[in-house]
């Protein structure tokens, strides 16, 4: 038996002939001690009954309407927080379209939209529907948002046609989710530190030098790590971003504060330095607001290099140190120099000369270089920072495994 004691699974069942497979999937999870709650969409009730699901799952079944009794017992936000993982099986073309548009018109779409957990989508539909360009666009969008797909597979369909669109088998769904959950349990024991955002270096009490970093890339990495169960600390310079409570967030302003917070958060197993730490600080900060002058010169001095300090430290160095390199030219060469000079295990290079990627954009394009020179550089082409983060975390997971 694969033990899933204390693991909480929220099943969402949509209307479709394959809904019967969800019953078998629920049975497999229950057999392995998982705790299950289920939402049935309105059309799902045409295919499976709340009674059959309750008796299999021994857990609450919500129908897809908001009602006072359900909301009092556990509101839709609490329900999305309760789950360790959400599985939507089967998901129809219609629900895929709704999720990709961000609708929140019923309990299923509201819970998914409000969720901070990994959502797995298990499609089942006619081959033409699956191959339709609008479905393909919706799937692409949902993958960009970080949803994971299981299937569909190719085979004979209930409608008599043959092709891709058939729902994956319960055992396959169970194994995929089990792997995800057991990695989550393993990862809980692994501590990761992420730095993100800019730093402010004060000139006087009201003025500072900073840069265009929004923190988005680092925050997305921290979110992806947390979804996989890693014990994550995010040390952030000033940003407008928020995170859920499951990330230990430490807010700082200057490079010196970021350095102290980093030292205090160690030891960790992994450290990812995505912050755009100011390379210079003002040598002597004025106590009072500097009066207007015709000309003014700033005397700057080098700031502490946090990554360099930590990665060269005998006792503090995490086992896996990942730096970023923000470059405007000679991307590969400059990144490789930083990989060596700063004693990193990986360096993630990004081009910050363009407006649509890098600093303060939702998108990025990165190349990862490794200290291990038997490993070839790996490029992740332009996509959302959330998706880049998922890929980086995938690579971290396969390295530590
Ligand atoms: O925040 P976003 O708007 O989402 O943008 C993301 C990003 C472009 C800021 C991010 O992807 C990125 O490239 N971060 C590193 C920015 C940077 O300062 O790069 P660098 O090449 O100057 O520094 C190299 C490495 O040393 C980085 O890991 C940096 O965190 C670290 N460093 C640098 C200087 C310093 N004083 N201390 C450091 O720890």
Tally of discrete structural domains? 2
Unreliable runs:
none
* Biggest sheet strand line-up: 13-12-9-14-17-18-19-20
CATH superfamily of the largest domain: CoaB-like
Task: List bound small molecules.
Answer: ligand PMT
Helix tally equals 14
CATH class of the largest domain: Alpha Beta
- Under the CATH scheme, the architecture of the largest domain is 3-Layer(aba) Sandwich
Shape category: elongated
CA-atom Rg in angstroms? 24 Å
Overall mean confidence score, pLDDT: 94
CATH third-tier fold name of the largest domain: Rossmann fold
The span between the termini is: 22 Å
Instruction: Quickly give the structural class.
Output: alpha/beta
Strands, count: 20
Summarize the main sheet: 8 strands, mixed
Key features?
6-stranded parallel β-sheet; 20 strands; alpha/beta; 25% strand; elongated; 401 residues; 8-stranded mixed β-sheet; 2 domains
């Amino acid at each position: 038996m694969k033990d899933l004691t204390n693991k909480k699974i929220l099943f969402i069942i949509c209307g479709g002939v394959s809904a019967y497979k969800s019953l078998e999937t629920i049975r497999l999870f229950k057999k392995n001690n998982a705790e299950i709650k289920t939402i049935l969409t309105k059309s799902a009730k045409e295919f499976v009954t709340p009674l059959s699901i309750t008796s299999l799952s021994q857990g609450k079944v919500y129908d897809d309407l908001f009602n006072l009794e359900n909301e009092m017992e556990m509101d839709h936000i609490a329900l999305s927080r309760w789950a360790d993982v959400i599985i939507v099986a089967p998901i129809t073309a219609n629900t895929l379209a709704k999720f990709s548009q961000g609708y929140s018109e019923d309990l299923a779409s509201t819970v998914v939209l409000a969720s901070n957990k990994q959502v797995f989508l298990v499609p089942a539909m006619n081959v033409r529907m699956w191959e339709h360009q609008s479905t393909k666009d919706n799937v692409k969008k949902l993958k960009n948002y970080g949803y994971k797909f299981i299937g569909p597979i190719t085979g004979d369909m209930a409608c008599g046609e043959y092709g891709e669109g058939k729902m994956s088998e319960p055992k396959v769904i169970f194994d995929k989710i089990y792997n995800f959950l057991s990695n989550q349990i393993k990862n809980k024991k692994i501590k990761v530190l992420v730095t993100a955002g800019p730093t402010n270096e004060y000139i006087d009490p009201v003025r500072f030098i900073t840069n265009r970093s929004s923190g988005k890339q680092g925050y997305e990495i921290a979110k992806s790590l947390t979804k996989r169960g890693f014990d994550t600390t995010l040390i952030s310079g000033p940003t407008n971003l928020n995170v859920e409570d499951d990330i230990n967030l430490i807010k700082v302003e200057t490079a010196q504060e970021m350095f102290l917070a980093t030292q205090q958060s160690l030891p960790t197993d992994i450290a990812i330095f995505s912050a755009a730490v100011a390379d210079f600080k003002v040598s002597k900060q004025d106590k009072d607001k500097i009066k207007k002058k015709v000309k003014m010169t700033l005397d700057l001095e080098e700031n502490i290099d946090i990554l360099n300090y930590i990665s060269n430290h005998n006792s503090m160095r995490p086992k896996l140190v990942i730096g970023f390199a923000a470059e405007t030219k000679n991307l590969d060469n400059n990144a490789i120099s930083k990989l060596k000079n700063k004693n990193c295990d990986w360096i993630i290079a990004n081009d910050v000369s363009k407006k649509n990627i890098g600093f303060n954009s939702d998108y990025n394009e990165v190349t990862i270089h490794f200290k291990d020179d038997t490993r070839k550089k790996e490029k992740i082409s332009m996509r959302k920072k959330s998706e880049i983060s998922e890929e980086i975390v995938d690579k971290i997971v396969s390295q530590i495994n």
